[in-house]
Design brief:
alpha/beta; TIM Barrel; 21% strand; 29% helix; eight-stranded parallel beta sheet
Length: 300
Amino acid sequence: MNTSVKIAGVEFKNPVMTGSGTFGSGMEYGEFVDLNRLGAVVTKGVANVPWTGNPTPRVAEVYGGMLNAIGLQNPGIDVFIERDLAFLRQFDTKVIVNICGKTVEDYLEVAEKLADTDVDLLEVNVSCPNVKEGAIAFGQKADALYDITSRIKAVAKQPIIMKLSPNVTDITEMARAAESAGADAISLINTLTGVKIDIERRQFVLANKTGGMSGPAIKPIAVRMVWQCANAVKIPIIGMGGIATAQDAIEFLMAGATAVAVGAMNFINPYATMEVAEGIEEFLQKHGIEDIREIIGCVK
C-alpha cells in the first residue's frame, strides 16, 4: 500500500503534516510523537528578527475551537537555524519552514537565510499585516499576494507554499494569484477572524480584541475552500482547518488536497498527528485501496 505523496518534486512518506504554530518545531512533542512517522513537520512562523508577539491574554477557548492572537512570537531566523533546524534534522521527516514578516523585504531576508540550509520547502504566511499597506494582510489583496509570491519565488532556493487566508471574498481569486505568480503549492485555510466578549466585565477577552479561530468548528468551511481551489488551480494543495481524526483528513483529500495538516487538535491530543496517519492507512486497507492517490480529488 502506497501512502506517499509528492509536492513540488518533494516526496512525503505520508500526507500528514503538523499545522504551523501548533507544534513548535517538534521539541515539545518528542515524548508523544515519533517525528519519523510524519510526512513533514511544519514549523512555527519565523521572522528575520525576534518578535515578542501580542500582549496577554492572547488565547481563548470558544465553542468548537479556540481563538489565538499570539502575534507570531518567535526567536528570529538566526536562533531558529541554530536550535530548531538542528533538532529537526535528527529525524527522517521532511521539514517545511513557515516564514512571516511585516514587509516584503522581511520575508526575502528569511528566505535568503534559509537558502543554503537543509530545508525541504518554505510555507509563506500571508496573513501577516502588511505595514506598508495600512496593515491589510498580504493575502487579502490579489495584487499584493501576486507581488510577494513572485518576489519570494525569485530568491528562494526551496519550493514555496503560499498559505492562504480565508478572510477574503473569493478564495479562488487568491489561489489563482499565487499560482500565476509562481507558487509551487498552496496551503489553506489559515484561521478565520473572530471575537469573544466577557459579558460580566463588558470587555474583549483577548487583549488584541480579535483573534484567529481554529478547531473543529471551521472544518466545513475549510473543506469547501480546498474543494473550490482544487477546481481552480493545478498546483498541489495542503488542506487544514479543524482536522481531529483520520476521517476529517480523508474529507480534505477527497476534496482535492494532496496533503493535510493537523493544527489545534495537537493542543488537545498530542498524539493526534500519528493517529490521523495510522487512521488513513486503516481506511485504505479496509477499502482495498492500494494507492492513496486514488482518493485524492475523487469528489468532484
